[in-house]
Design brief:
It is built from 21 helices and eight strands. The chain is α/β, with parallel strands linked by helices and 465 residues long. It folds into three domains: 83 residues, SRP54, nucleotide-binding domain (Four Helix Bundle (Hemerythrin (Met), subunit A), Up-down Bundle); 198 residues, P-loop containing nucleotide triphosphate hydrolases (Rossmann fold); 143 residues, 434 Repressor (Amino-terminal Domain) (Orthogonal Bundle). The chain has an eight-stranded mixed β-sheet with strand order 3-2-4-1-5-6-7-8, sandwiched between helices. The longest helix has 32 residues. It is flat. The two termini are 22 Å apart.
Protein backbone atom coordinates (compact mmCIF):
# COMPACT_ATOMS: atom_id res chain seq x y z
CA UNK A 1 0.00 0.00 0.00
CA UNK A 2 1.20 3.53 -0.87
CA UNK A 3 4.26 2.19 -2.75
CA UNK A 4 3.77 4.47 -5.78
CA UNK A 5 3.01 7.54 -3.64
CA UNK A 6 5.90 6.84 -1.30
CA UNK A 7 8.33 6.48 -4.21
CA UNK A 8 7.24 9.78 -5.82
CA UNK A 9 7.25 11.78 -2.57
CA UNK A 10 10.68 10.49 -1.63
CA UNK A 11 11.96 11.59 -5.05
CA UNK A 12 10.62 15.10 -4.39
CA UNK A 13 12.19 15.27 -0.93
CA UNK A 14 15.55 13.94 -2.15
CA UNK A 15 15.71 16.84 -4.61
CA UNK A 16 14.86 19.30 -1.83
CA UNK A 17 17.60 17.90 0.43
CA UNK A 18 20.23 18.28 -2.31
CA UNK A 19 19.49 22.00 -2.65
CA UNK A 20 20.41 22.87 0.96
CA UNK A 21 18.97 26.41 1.26
CA UNK A 22 15.44 26.72 -0.13
CA UNK A 23 13.64 29.61 -1.76
CA UNK A 24 9.88 30.09 -1.79
CA UNK A 25 9.95 29.04 -5.48
CA UNK A 26 11.65 25.74 -4.52
CA UNK A 27 8.90 24.97 -2.00
CA UNK A 28 6.15 25.90 -4.49
CA UNK A 29 7.73 23.63 -7.13
CA UNK A 30 7.96 20.76 -4.62
CA UNK A 31 4.32 21.28 -3.64
CA UNK A 32 3.24 21.08 -7.30
CA UNK A 33 5.00 17.71 -7.52
CA UNK A 34 3.40 16.57 -4.24
CA UNK A 35 -0.01 17.56 -5.62
CA UNK A 36 0.54 15.55 -8.82
CA UNK A 37 1.79 12.54 -6.80
CA UNK A 38 -1.34 12.63 -4.60
CA UNK A 39 -3.67 12.86 -7.61
CA UNK A 40 -1.87 9.97 -9.34
CA UNK A 41 -2.31 7.96 -6.11
CA UNK A 42 -6.09 8.38 -6.58
CA UNK A 43 -6.54 10.75 -3.63
CA UNK A 44 -9.81 12.72 -3.91
CA UNK A 45 -9.29 16.22 -5.37
CA UNK A 46 -10.82 18.13 -2.39
CA UNK A 47 -8.44 16.25 -0.06
CA UNK A 48 -5.43 17.06 -2.27
CA UNK A 49 -6.37 20.76 -2.35
CA UNK A 50 -6.85 20.90 1.43
CA UNK A 51 -3.61 19.02 2.19
CA UNK A 52 -1.41 21.08 -0.15
CA UNK A 53 -2.99 24.35 1.08
CA UNK A 54 -2.12 23.42 4.68
CA UNK A 55 1.46 22.50 3.74
CA UNK A 56 1.92 25.70 1.70
CA UNK A 57 0.66 27.86 4.56
CA UNK A 58 3.10 26.31 7.04
CA UNK A 59 6.08 25.78 4.73
CA UNK A 60 6.55 29.17 3.07
CA UNK A 61 7.26 31.07 6.30
CA UNK A 62 10.68 32.54 7.18
CA UNK A 63 10.92 30.05 10.06
CA UNK A 64 11.19 27.19 7.58
CA UNK A 65 13.11 28.79 4.71
CA UNK A 66 15.82 30.20 7.02
CA UNK A 67 16.12 27.16 9.27
CA UNK A 68 19.27 25.02 9.47
CA UNK A 69 17.63 22.14 7.55
CA UNK A 70 14.68 23.57 5.58
CA UNK A 71 14.09 20.33 3.62
CA UNK A 72 13.62 18.38 6.87
CA UNK A 73 11.21 21.05 8.09
CA UNK A 74 9.14 20.74 4.91
CA UNK A 75 9.07 16.93 5.25
CA UNK A 76 7.91 17.31 8.88
CA UNK A 77 5.11 19.65 7.75
CA UNK A 78 4.02 17.19 5.01
CA UNK A 79 4.11 14.38 7.59
CA UNK A 80 1.87 16.36 9.97
CA UNK A 81 -0.56 17.17 7.15
CA UNK A 82 -0.72 13.48 6.14
CA UNK A 83 -1.40 12.43 9.75
CA UNK A 84 -4.22 14.98 9.87
CA UNK A 85 -5.68 13.78 6.54
CA UNK A 86 -5.56 10.16 7.74
CA UNK A 87 -7.60 11.07 10.79
CA UNK A 88 -4.96 11.82 13.42
CA UNK A 89 -3.98 15.10 15.00
CA UNK A 90 -2.22 16.63 17.95
CA UNK A 91 -4.67 15.09 20.40
CA UNK A 92 -5.12 11.80 18.57
CA UNK A 93 -2.40 9.96 16.67
CA UNK A 94 -2.94 6.55 18.27
CA UNK A 95 -4.73 3.48 16.96
CA UNK A 96 -8.49 3.55 16.68
CA UNK A 97 -9.27 -0.07 17.40
CA UNK A 98 -12.74 -1.38 18.17
CA UNK A 99 -14.53 0.35 21.04
CA UNK A 100 -15.94 -2.25 23.47
CA UNK A 101 -16.68 0.22 26.26
CA UNK A 102 -20.34 -0.78 26.72
CA UNK A 103 -22.36 -3.30 28.79
CA UNK A 104 -22.01 -6.91 27.57
CA UNK A 105 -23.03 -8.33 25.21
CA UNK A 106 -21.60 -5.59 22.95
CA UNK A 107 -23.20 -5.70 19.47
CA UNK A 108 -20.91 -4.98 16.47
CA UNK A 109 -22.71 -4.46 13.16
CA UNK A 110 -20.73 -5.31 10.00
CA UNK A 111 -21.96 -3.55 6.83
CA UNK A 112 -20.69 -3.17 3.27
CA UNK A 113 -21.09 -4.25 -0.33
CA UNK A 114 -20.91 -7.86 -1.49
CA UNK A 115 -17.35 -8.95 -2.25
CA UNK A 116 -15.68 -6.40 0.04
CA UNK A 117 -14.50 -9.14 2.43
CA UNK A 118 -17.12 -8.46 5.10
CA UNK A 119 -17.70 -12.06 6.22
CA UNK A 120 -13.97 -12.88 6.30
CA UNK A 121 -13.36 -9.65 8.26
CA UNK A 122 -16.04 -10.69 10.76
CA UNK A 123 -14.06 -13.90 11.35
CA UNK A 124 -10.79 -11.95 11.66
CA UNK A 125 -12.32 -9.57 14.22
CA UNK A 126 -13.70 -12.52 16.22
CA UNK A 127 -10.23 -14.15 16.30
CA UNK A 128 -8.62 -10.86 17.34
CA UNK A 129 -11.14 -10.23 20.14
CA UNK A 130 -10.77 -13.80 21.40
CA UNK A 131 -6.96 -13.91 21.39
CA UNK A 132 -5.97 -10.33 22.13
CA UNK A 133 -8.84 -9.07 24.30
CA UNK A 134 -9.82 -12.47 25.80
CA UNK A 135 -13.49 -11.94 24.88
CA UNK A 136 -16.19 -14.55 24.45
CA UNK A 137 -17.49 -13.88 20.92
CA UNK A 138 -20.64 -14.96 19.08
CA UNK A 139 -20.75 -14.71 15.28
CA UNK A 140 -24.16 -14.36 13.61
CA UNK A 141 -24.87 -14.15 9.87
CA UNK A 142 -27.89 -12.02 8.92
CA UNK A 143 -27.34 -12.64 5.20
CA UNK A 144 -30.38 -14.52 3.93
CA UNK A 145 -29.83 -13.51 0.28
CA UNK A 146 -26.45 -14.94 -0.69
CA UNK A 147 -26.39 -18.76 -0.99
CA UNK A 148 -24.37 -20.45 1.77
CA UNK A 149 -23.44 -17.10 3.42
CA UNK A 150 -24.53 -18.40 6.83
CA UNK A 151 -22.59 -21.64 6.32
CA UNK A 152 -19.50 -19.63 5.37
CA UNK A 153 -19.60 -17.70 8.66
CA UNK A 154 -20.26 -20.93 10.59
CA UNK A 155 -17.13 -22.46 8.98
CA UNK A 156 -15.07 -19.36 9.84
CA UNK A 157 -16.28 -19.50 13.44
CA UNK A 158 -15.00 -23.09 13.73
CA UNK A 159 -11.65 -22.09 12.22
CA UNK A 160 -11.09 -19.25 14.71
CA UNK A 161 -12.52 -21.16 17.68
CA UNK A 162 -15.57 -19.03 18.52
CA UNK A 163 -19.29 -19.76 18.69
CA UNK A 164 -21.69 -19.14 15.80
CA UNK A 165 -25.45 -18.73 15.96
CA UNK A 166 -27.23 -21.97 14.93
CA UNK A 167 -28.83 -21.61 11.49
CA UNK A 168 -32.64 -21.61 11.35
CA UNK A 169 -34.04 -21.58 7.80
CA UNK A 170 -36.68 -19.03 6.81
CA UNK A 171 -35.92 -16.33 9.40
CA UNK A 172 -35.62 -12.64 8.49
CA UNK A 173 -32.45 -10.65 9.31
CA UNK A 174 -34.36 -8.93 12.15
CA UNK A 175 -35.41 -12.28 13.66
CA UNK A 176 -31.82 -13.60 13.41
CA UNK A 177 -30.49 -10.48 15.14
CA UNK A 178 -33.06 -10.87 17.93
CA UNK A 179 -32.14 -14.53 18.41
CA UNK A 180 -28.41 -13.68 18.46
CA UNK A 181 -28.80 -10.99 21.13
CA UNK A 182 -31.06 -13.23 23.22
CA UNK A 183 -28.55 -16.14 23.09
CA UNK A 184 -25.66 -13.78 23.91
CA UNK A 185 -27.45 -12.48 27.02
CA UNK A 186 -28.40 -15.97 28.23
CA UNK A 187 -24.95 -17.52 27.66
CA UNK A 188 -22.96 -14.48 28.84
CA UNK A 189 -21.13 -13.60 25.61
CA UNK A 190 -19.00 -10.45 25.69
CA UNK A 191 -19.38 -9.49 22.01
CA UNK A 192 -21.87 -10.31 19.24
CA UNK A 193 -20.68 -9.75 15.65
CA UNK A 194 -23.71 -9.28 13.36
CA UNK A 195 -22.68 -9.84 9.72
CA UNK A 196 -25.31 -8.22 7.47
CA UNK A 197 -26.05 -8.93 3.81
CA UNK A 198 -24.33 -7.00 1.02
CA UNK A 199 -25.30 -6.15 -2.54
CA UNK A 200 -23.29 -5.72 -5.73
CA UNK A 201 -24.27 -2.04 -5.63
CA UNK A 202 -25.91 0.36 -3.21
CA UNK A 203 -29.72 0.25 -3.42
CA UNK A 204 -32.67 1.31 -1.28
CA UNK A 205 -33.54 -2.27 -0.25
CA UNK A 206 -30.03 -2.85 1.14
CA UNK A 207 -30.00 0.44 3.07
CA UNK A 208 -33.50 -0.14 4.46
CA UNK A 209 -32.56 -3.63 5.70
CA UNK A 210 -29.33 -2.43 7.34
CA UNK A 211 -31.10 0.57 8.92
CA UNK A 212 -33.83 -1.71 10.32
CA UNK A 213 -31.30 -4.10 11.90
CA UNK A 214 -29.31 -1.16 13.30
CA UNK A 215 -32.42 0.40 14.87
CA UNK A 216 -33.24 -2.92 16.54
CA UNK A 217 -29.77 -4.06 17.67
CA UNK A 218 -28.47 -0.61 18.71
CA UNK A 219 -24.87 -1.62 17.89
CA UNK A 220 -22.06 0.02 19.85
CA UNK A 221 -19.96 -0.03 16.66
CA UNK A 222 -21.18 -0.04 13.05
CA UNK A 223 -18.14 -1.03 10.97
CA UNK A 224 -18.15 -0.49 7.22
CA UNK A 225 -15.93 -2.93 5.29
CA UNK A 226 -14.56 -1.55 2.01
CA UNK A 227 -12.17 -3.01 -0.57
CA UNK A 228 -9.13 -0.71 -0.88
CA UNK A 229 -8.49 -1.94 -4.43
CA UNK A 230 -11.70 -0.25 -5.67
CA UNK A 231 -10.07 3.16 -5.05
CA UNK A 232 -12.49 6.09 -5.21
CA UNK A 233 -15.44 3.65 -5.49
CA UNK A 234 -14.59 2.63 -1.92
CA UNK A 235 -14.78 6.30 -0.88
CA UNK A 236 -18.15 6.73 -2.64
CA UNK A 237 -19.46 3.57 -0.94
CA UNK A 238 -18.32 4.87 2.45
CA UNK A 239 -19.98 8.24 1.84
CA UNK A 240 -23.30 6.56 0.90
CA UNK A 241 -23.34 4.29 3.98
CA UNK A 242 -22.39 7.18 6.25
CA UNK A 243 -25.18 9.38 4.83
CA UNK A 244 -27.93 6.74 4.86
CA UNK A 245 -27.07 4.44 7.79
CA UNK A 246 -24.29 6.06 9.81
CA UNK A 247 -21.03 4.23 10.55
CA UNK A 248 -18.64 4.57 13.50
CA UNK A 249 -15.58 3.22 11.72
CA UNK A 250 -14.14 1.78 8.52
CA UNK A 251 -12.23 -1.46 7.90
CA UNK A 252 -10.17 -1.42 4.70
CA UNK A 253 -9.48 -4.83 3.18
CA UNK A 254 -7.00 -5.98 0.50
CA UNK A 255 -4.59 -3.16 1.28
CA UNK A 256 -1.75 -5.47 0.19
CA UNK A 257 -3.08 -5.25 -3.37
CA UNK A 258 -3.58 -1.46 -3.37
CA UNK A 259 -0.30 0.17 -4.41
CA UNK A 260 -1.80 3.68 -4.64
CA UNK A 261 -3.56 4.09 -1.27
CA UNK A 262 -5.66 7.09 -2.33
CA UNK A 263 -8.82 5.67 -0.77
CA UNK A 264 -7.22 5.54 2.69
CA UNK A 265 -6.03 9.14 2.40
CA UNK A 266 -9.47 10.32 1.23
CA UNK A 267 -11.69 8.28 3.54
CA UNK A 268 -11.61 10.36 6.75
CA UNK A 269 -11.89 13.74 5.03
CA UNK A 270 -14.78 12.66 2.78
CA UNK A 271 -16.85 10.64 5.30
CA UNK A 272 -15.80 11.96 8.73
CA UNK A 273 -15.56 8.32 9.88
CA UNK A 274 -12.17 7.03 11.07
CA UNK A 275 -10.40 4.04 9.54
CA UNK A 276 -10.11 1.58 12.44
CA UNK A 277 -8.58 -1.57 10.98
CA UNK A 278 -6.61 -2.72 7.93
CA UNK A 279 -6.87 -6.19 6.39
CA UNK A 280 -4.00 -7.57 4.33
CA UNK A 281 -4.43 -11.01 2.79
CA UNK A 282 -6.74 -13.95 3.38
CA UNK A 283 -5.08 -15.24 6.55
CA UNK A 284 -7.41 -14.92 9.53
CA UNK A 285 -4.75 -13.18 11.62
CA UNK A 286 -4.00 -10.62 8.86
CA UNK A 287 -5.70 -7.68 10.55
CA UNK A 288 -3.96 -4.68 12.09
CA UNK A 289 -4.86 -1.44 13.88
CA UNK A 290 -4.83 1.73 11.82
CA UNK A 291 -2.36 4.28 13.23
CA UNK A 292 -2.44 7.59 11.27
CA UNK A 293 1.05 8.60 12.44
CA UNK A 294 2.61 5.23 11.58
CA UNK A 295 0.96 5.12 8.14
CA UNK A 296 2.25 8.64 7.41
CA UNK A 297 5.73 7.41 8.39
CA UNK A 298 5.47 4.53 5.90
CA UNK A 299 4.36 6.89 3.11
CA UNK A 300 7.34 9.19 3.70
CA UNK A 301 9.84 6.32 3.90
CA UNK A 302 10.37 6.74 7.66
CA UNK A 303 9.35 3.15 8.32
CA UNK A 304 7.16 1.77 11.07
CA UNK A 305 9.40 0.05 13.59
CA UNK A 306 6.72 0.11 16.33
CA UNK A 307 4.27 -1.94 14.25
CA UNK A 308 7.06 -4.32 13.24
CA UNK A 309 7.96 -4.93 16.90
CA UNK A 310 4.28 -5.40 17.80
CA UNK A 311 3.80 -7.92 15.00
CA UNK A 312 6.91 -9.80 16.09
CA UNK A 313 5.67 -9.88 19.71
CA UNK A 314 2.31 -11.31 18.59
CA UNK A 315 3.64 -13.98 16.23
CA UNK A 316 7.07 -15.13 17.41
CA UNK A 317 7.26 -18.00 19.89
CA UNK A 318 9.10 -16.45 22.83
CA UNK A 319 10.39 -19.73 24.30
CA UNK A 320 11.65 -20.85 20.89
CA UNK A 321 13.35 -17.48 20.33
CA UNK A 322 15.06 -17.58 23.74
CA UNK A 323 16.37 -21.11 23.12
CA UNK A 324 17.70 -20.04 19.72
CA UNK A 325 19.35 -16.94 21.24
CA UNK A 326 21.06 -19.09 23.89
CA UNK A 327 22.38 -21.48 21.22
CA UNK A 328 23.67 -18.55 19.15
CA UNK A 329 25.50 -17.12 22.17
CA UNK A 330 27.32 -20.43 22.51
CA UNK A 331 28.23 -20.38 18.82
CA UNK A 332 25.84 -23.26 18.08
CA UNK A 333 23.77 -22.70 14.96
CA UNK A 334 22.50 -25.61 12.86
CA UNK A 335 20.33 -25.89 9.78
CA UNK A 336 17.47 -26.91 12.11
CA UNK A 337 17.87 -23.53 13.82
CA UNK A 338 17.93 -21.84 10.40
CA UNK A 339 14.68 -23.63 9.46
CA UNK A 340 13.14 -22.53 12.75
CA UNK A 341 14.07 -18.91 11.95
CA UNK A 342 12.50 -19.16 8.50
CA UNK A 343 9.28 -20.48 10.07
CA UNK A 344 9.15 -17.61 12.62
CA UNK A 345 9.69 -15.01 9.88
CA UNK A 346 6.96 -16.60 7.75
CA UNK A 347 4.46 -16.18 10.60
CA UNK A 348 4.96 -12.40 10.51
CA UNK A 349 3.57 -12.06 6.98
CA UNK A 350 5.12 -11.26 3.61
CA UNK A 351 8.81 -10.35 3.56
CA UNK A 352 8.18 -7.29 1.40
CA UNK A 353 5.59 -6.14 3.95
CA UNK A 354 8.03 -6.63 6.84
CA UNK A 355 10.86 -4.85 5.00
CA UNK A 356 8.48 -2.02 4.09
CA UNK A 357 8.29 -1.14 7.79
CA UNK A 358 12.01 -0.43 7.97
CA UNK A 359 13.15 3.21 7.63
CA UNK A 360 14.57 4.16 4.23
CA UNK A 361 13.65 0.85 2.64
CA UNK A 362 11.50 2.57 -0.01
CA UNK A 363 14.64 3.44 -1.96
CA UNK A 364 15.52 -0.28 -2.04
CA UNK A 365 12.08 -1.28 -3.38
CA UNK A 366 13.29 -2.34 -6.82
CA UNK A 367 16.22 -4.30 -5.39
CA UNK A 368 13.90 -6.09 -2.97
CA UNK A 369 11.56 -7.02 -5.83
CA UNK A 370 14.49 -8.19 -7.97
CA UNK A 371 15.72 -10.32 -5.05
CA UNK A 372 12.34 -12.14 -5.12
CA UNK A 373 11.95 -11.92 -1.34
CA UNK A 374 8.58 -13.54 -0.87
CA UNK A 375 7.20 -16.28 1.37
CA UNK A 376 7.36 -18.89 -1.39
CA UNK A 377 11.14 -18.48 -1.25
CA UNK A 378 11.02 -19.18 2.51
CA UNK A 379 8.91 -22.29 1.88
CA UNK A 380 11.34 -23.55 -0.76
CA UNK A 381 14.28 -23.09 1.60
CA UNK A 382 12.37 -24.91 4.37
CA UNK A 383 11.59 -27.74 1.90
CA UNK A 384 15.31 -28.08 1.06
CA UNK A 385 16.21 -28.39 4.76
CA UNK A 386 13.39 -30.94 5.29
CA UNK A 387 14.87 -33.08 2.50
CA UNK A 388 18.18 -33.41 4.37
CA UNK A 389 18.99 -36.17 6.84
CA UNK A 390 19.40 -35.24 10.55
CA UNK A 391 23.16 -35.79 10.12
CA UNK A 392 23.30 -33.40 7.14
CA UNK A 393 21.40 -30.72 9.07
CA UNK A 394 23.86 -31.00 11.98
CA UNK A 395 26.98 -31.09 9.77
CA UNK A 396 26.25 -29.42 6.39
CA UNK A 397 29.94 -29.69 5.41
CA UNK A 398 29.30 -33.32 4.40
CA UNK A 399 26.82 -32.23 1.72
CA UNK A 400 28.68 -32.77 -1.56
CA UNK A 401 27.54 -33.11 -5.20
CA UNK A 402 25.62 -36.44 -4.95
CA UNK A 403 23.86 -35.40 -1.74
CA UNK A 404 22.92 -32.03 -3.27
CA UNK A 405 21.27 -33.80 -6.23
CA UNK A 406 19.27 -36.03 -3.87
CA UNK A 407 18.19 -33.06 -1.70
CA UNK A 408 17.18 -31.02 -4.78
CA UNK A 409 15.12 -33.92 -6.17
CA UNK A 410 13.46 -34.54 -2.78
CA UNK A 411 12.51 -30.88 -2.29
CA UNK A 412 11.44 -30.16 -5.88
CA UNK A 413 14.17 -27.54 -6.26
CA UNK A 414 17.45 -27.23 -8.16
CA UNK A 415 21.05 -27.88 -7.10
CA UNK A 416 21.67 -24.13 -7.53
CA UNK A 417 18.99 -23.39 -4.92
CA UNK A 418 20.53 -25.93 -2.54
CA UNK A 419 23.93 -24.24 -3.04
CA UNK A 420 22.36 -20.85 -2.39
CA UNK A 421 20.76 -22.01 0.85
CA UNK A 422 24.04 -23.51 2.07
CA UNK A 423 25.83 -20.24 1.20
CA UNK A 424 23.21 -18.22 3.13
CA UNK A 425 23.60 -20.56 6.09
CA UNK A 426 27.39 -20.21 6.00
CA UNK A 427 27.05 -16.41 5.90
CA UNK A 428 24.65 -16.42 8.85
CA UNK A 429 26.90 -18.78 10.83
CA UNK A 430 29.85 -16.45 10.16
CA UNK A 431 27.73 -13.54 11.35
CA UNK A 432 26.91 -15.37 14.60
CA UNK A 433 30.61 -16.09 15.20
CA UNK A 434 31.49 -12.43 14.59
CA UNK A 435 28.74 -11.38 17.01
CA UNK A 436 30.16 -13.58 19.76
CA UNK A 437 33.70 -12.40 19.03
CA UNK A 438 32.84 -8.68 18.96
CA UNK A 439 30.73 -8.73 22.13
CA UNK A 440 28.19 -6.01 22.90
CA UNK A 441 30.69 -3.10 22.96
CA UNK A 442 32.34 -4.13 19.70
CA UNK A 443 28.96 -4.49 18.06
CA UNK A 444 27.95 -1.00 19.23
CA UNK A 445 31.15 0.44 17.72
CA UNK A 446 31.11 -1.45 14.43
CA UNK A 447 27.36 -1.57 13.81
CA UNK A 448 25.73 -3.90 11.28
CA UNK A 449 28.64 -3.58 8.86
CA UNK A 450 30.93 -5.30 11.37
CA UNK A 451 28.73 -8.41 11.23
CA UNK A 452 28.45 -8.75 7.47
CA UNK A 453 30.77 -11.38 5.97
CA UNK A 454 32.63 -10.04 2.96
CA UNK A 455 30.59 -10.42 -0.23
CA UNK A 456 27.47 -11.58 1.65
CA UNK A 457 24.34 -11.43 -0.56
CA UNK A 458 20.60 -11.59 -0.08
CA UNK A 459 18.75 -14.83 -0.97
CA UNK A 460 17.98 -13.51 -4.46
CA UNK A 461 21.61 -12.65 -5.15
CA UNK A 462 21.60 -8.96 -4.15
CA UNK A 463 24.10 -7.46 -1.76
CA UNK A 464 22.68 -6.41 1.64
CA UNK A 465 21.78 -2.78 2.30
Amino acid sequence: MFEALSSKLNGVFDRLRRRGALSEADVQEALREVRVALLEADVALPVVKDLTAKVRERAVGAEVLKSVSPAQQVIKIVNDALVEALGGGEADTGARGIDLNAPAPVPLLMVGLQGSGKTTTSGKIALRLKNRDKKKVLLASLDVHRPAAQLQLETLAKQVGVASLPIVAGQTPLQIAGRAMDLARRELFDVVVLDTAGRLAIDEALMAEVAEVKAFAQPHETLLVVDAMTGQDAVNTARAFQDKVGVTGIVMTRIDGDARGGAALSMRAVTGAPIKLLGAGEKLDALEDFHPDRIAGRILGMGDIVSLVERAAETIDRDEAEKLAARMQKGQFSLDDYASQLKQIGKMGSLSGILGMLPGIGKMKQQIEDANLDNSMLKRQAAIISSMTPKERRAPDIIKASRKKRIAAGSGTSVQEVNRLLKNFDDMSAMMKRMNKLGQKGLMRGGLGALMPKGMKLPGGRKPF
